[in-house]
Design brief:
The chain has 121 residues and is of the alpha+beta class. It has 7 helices and 3 strands; from the N terminus they run αααααββααβ. The protein has a domain at 54-120: GMP Synthetase, Chain A, domain 3, CATH 3.30.300. The protein has helices at residues 7-15, 36-47, 54-60, 62-65, 68-71, 91-99, 101-111, and strands at residues 74-80, 83-88, 117-120. A 3-stranded mixed β-sheet has the order 1-2-3. The longest helix has 12 residues, at 36-47. It is rod-shaped and about 80 Å long. The N and C termini lie far apart (62 Å).
Length: 121
């Protein structure tokens, strides 16, 4: 049962503290139960974060970032602090990736502009 509008004033007087209007905002969901996926998307929207992050963008377009002959022999590990970390299958693949690293960087920047350098492990 909702409280009357003067309840805050009565409680403030009882407690002996000054009454102030609440600075709280109404809920985005208006108090109704929501599915967790919808709450997550509302939170991302509120924080102005895209759902498809760097990992998703590179994962979907990996075959366009890496040359076709190396695409199956390496995978990307992470994108942190502007560094794209690529995991090579062996030392020979790592060496080939180092030779084409400038092209990989340019291709990766078309999908994730924040990438500034490449680390191959």
């Amino acid at each position: 049962m909702p409280l009357s509008s003067d309840t805050d004033g009565i409680l403030s007087a009882f407690r002996g503290i000054a009454h102030s209007n609440s600075a709280a905002r109404p809920r985005m969901t208006e108090g109704r139960p929501q599915k967790i996926g919808k709450i997550g998307s509302l939170t991302l929207k509120k924080l102005d974060i895209n759902e498809g992050g760097a990992r998703d963008m590179l994962g979907l377009n990996w075959h366009l970032v890496i040359p076709p002959n190396l695409c199956e022999r390496c995978s990307f590990e992470s994108v942190r602090g502007g560094t794209l970390t690529i995991c090579a299958q062996n030392a020979a693949v790592k060496q080939q990736l180092l030779f084409v690293s400038r092209g990989i960087l340019k291709n990766a920047q078309t999908f994730v502009p924040d990438i500034k350098k490449i680390r191959i492990i």
